[in-house]
Amino acid sequence: MKAKERRQAILADLKEQSHPITASQLAQRYQVSRQVIVGDIALLRASNIAITASNQGYFLTSHLINTSYYTGKIVCQHGLDQTATELQAIIDLGARLIDVEVDHPIYGLLLAPLPIEKQADIDYFMESIKQDPSRLLSSLTEGLHSHTIQCRDFEHFRQVQDRLKELGILYQD
């Protein structure tokens, strides 16, 4: 398979999947190295295809946000010890986490996709950061960060905010 054909096949895979696909999975499927896949993804992005990379793999950015739901921002502050509690509170109420962002004093706004909607996503994320807590983006800003979340409607969004406030996680001045 030629490189251009492989990139088109990768794009087709991303369109068909509702969950992230890792570079290693794609490399195995197309019998190339992981680094070749990383390059293919970079070339696809350079051709204006919106592909998001997360800690779970690649997916089309259009799969990230469902426009039939209310999308809002929450601002939180906590340490590593409350990370699982924060994520659990959000999904227990039926909301979906989209991303995390911090306002870094030097680099400005740093945003990373963080698609979490079920317990397995929380488990995977927590296992990923267990070895090195400094991997948390919020470790750059003393725990202060924001999330984009999706909820059924605005009232549902307020319920999530209220729960995080009860837990002492929602940032308030």
Automatic annotation (TrEMBL):
Residues covered by the Helix-turn-helix type domain: 6-58
Record has Metal-binding as a keyword: yes
Signal peptide: none
Record-listed Ni(2+) binding positions: H78, E86, H145, H147
Annotated GO MF terms: metal ion binding
Spans traversing the lipid bilayer: none
Boundaries of every 3H domain copy: 74-170
Keyword Lipid metabolism included in the entry's annotation: no
Keyword annotations from UniProtKB, A to Z: Metal-binding, Nickel
Protein name: Transcription repressor NadR
Organism: Facklamia hominis
Lineage of origin: Bacteria, Bacillati, Bacillota, Bacilli, Lactobacillales
